[in-house]
């Protein structure tokens, strides 16, 4: 069970004080009792002496010579006389210890046989019974003991005073105990409260919530301790924050690594898949050549197919290499100020024959606008977009190619009248090897790398590429690059 320091300190102090006061009271009471006894004994002795002096004077003045006859004759008068002087019951005994006279004979007799031999032997002796003290003093005339005188003294006032003193001292001890206990509790309350707050602060640090540490404003050891704990909390909070941010960085790095791993796996899977088709065709024709060695016509046809597949394979390898280089190595761009229109004219010439072959009309609208870019990259972007506009167009369709300046950006736009791209696939087409439908291209030229390459190049040049539907049907790709 938890014991509060507040109560323990209070109880300890109060107990110490109680012990001190009790010891002091015992000493005081002992001294009172001692003083009372000394005073009382002195009074008794005085009474004995007064009685003896009186007896001696009376005896000398009397005509009776025999001491026993004197005492027997004068006993009643003597006890009355002593009673009058002292206000106490006085009893007179002869030399044999027998009662001769009692000033208050109506009171019950008191047995004092045990003390009598001492009194008869000339000694003063007394005994206390309750509130009454029986004092026996030897009586003598001039040269011999003639009897014993007994005084019965009431000591109730003396006992009452002693009792009262005892009670008062005990009450005082009780009051001091309670006051000390309460005072110590009240005094140590702020201390224990501060300690409780420090305990809570330490618990908060332990639970990993150092921001909850309380700072005590005190100019004592507790204040110093609180300051130390507060600084400790601050340091731990700072370290925890640093740790959390490091953890976040690490988590992001792990996520990135995982994503990169997945991407790598997908990429390798796709490359393997894409390379398998032309290789299968090449292998099939090579087998045919081997089987029909003498068939010249077949040889010619196989050679044409093998050539076509090899050039496709080589184009794919080039594209894959470019894409990989762009993703994994520091891609070196040779940037210069380029007239975009001029670049596009060259690109159009590049695909002109193909477009003509498909009966496509090509419309060009080039406004004067310059970019600071790598010529090779711009050419690849334009040729890829034009190539797609041809591949995915309808027979006798149209391709519009424009360049202009808008919002401080150089824009390159390639629009076609082809099959179009659904909304859900407008993002996916920029993924490497993503193809909507191979049959769309009209031949097997599709590899799914073109747009990924275009997007990568555009981003390397600090631009953006977007794809929208043409109002008249078809697709419009827009590339925005920083103006030179
Ligand atoms: P591909 O070699 O298949 O053309 P791309 O990365 O250039 O690879 O294009 C990805 C896919 O996007 C294509 O398979 C095609 O389905 C679609 N696509 C690209 N350009 C167009 C376009 N102009 N019109 C319609 N579909 C297009």
UniProtKB/TrEMBL annotation:
E.C. number(s) listed in UniProt: 2.7.13.3
Compartment(s): Cell membrane
Domain Histidine kinase intervals: 270-484
TM segment ranges: 12-32, 169-187
The keyword Aminoacyl-tRNA synthetase belongs to this UniProt entry's keyword annotation: no
Principal subcellular localization: membrane
Catalytic activity: ATP + protein L-histidine = ADP + protein N-phospho-L-histidine
Presence of the UniProt keyword Phosphoprotein in the record: yes
Domain HAMP: 189-241
Pfam families assigned to the protein according to its UniProt record, in alphabetical order: HATPase_c, HisKA
InterPro entries associated with the record: HAMP_dom, HATPase_C_sf, HATPase_dom, His_kinase_dom, HisK_dim/P_dom, HisK_dim/P_sf, HssS/ArlS-like, Sig_transdc_His_kin-like_C
Protein keywords: ATP-binding, Cell membrane, Kinase, Membrane, Nucleotide-binding, Phosphoprotein, Transferase, Transmembrane, Transmembrane helix, Two-component regulatory system
Membrane topology: Multi-pass membrane protein
This protein's name: histidine kinase
Organism: Fusibacter paucivorans
Lineage of origin: Bacteria, Bacillati, Bacillota, Clostridia, Eubacteriales
